[in-house]
Amino acid sequence: VDAVTQVVSMRLSSDERVLGLKAAFDKRLSLERIEQIIDDLEAGIREHFPQIKKIWVEPAADDDPPASAP
Questions:
Q1: Which residue from 5, 10, 1, 35 is spatially nearest to 22, judged by alpha carbons?
Q2: Nearest 5°: phi and psi at 20?
Q3: How are beta strands 16-24 and 3-13 bridged, if at all?
Q4: Minimal CA–CA distance to 64: which of 28, 23, 9?
Q5: Per-residue pLDDT at 54
Q6: Bridge partners for 4 per DSSP
Q7: Could you report the per-residue pLDDT of 19-31, keeping only the tens digit for each?
Q8: Is the Cβ–Cβ distance between 10 and 21 less than 8 Å?
Q9: What does the pLDDT average to over 11-17?
Q10: Rounded distance, CA 22 to CA 56, Å?
């Protein structure tokens, strides 16, 4: 992942959260490789944050600006 351009999270209950993000990838990567990276990213997030029940990751558009820090 070159950059995360958008992040949205929501707390649904004390033990349940959802996360959505857009990520910029190297343009030379194949679609299959990007899918594998997304699967690995989701698995890593779930391993460290099991309260995140739903995760959506999608490739960022070329004109998406980088995410700003909260």
A1: 5
A2: -130, 140
A3: antiparallel
A4: 23
A5: 94
A6: 23
A7: 999 999 999 999 9
A8: no
A9: 91
A10: 8
Structure tokens at 38: 């997304």
Pick from 54, 64, 56, 55: which is nearest to 24 by CA?
A: 64
pTM, entire model: 0.78
The predicted structure's pLDDT at residue 20: 96
| Token pair in block for residue 27 | 């343009």
Q: Which residues lie across from 5 on neighbouring strands?
A: none
Query: 31-63 pLDDT, tens per residue?
Result: 999 999 999 999 999 999 999 999 999 998 776
Please give the single-letter amino acid code of residue 59.
P
Three-class SS state of 61: coil
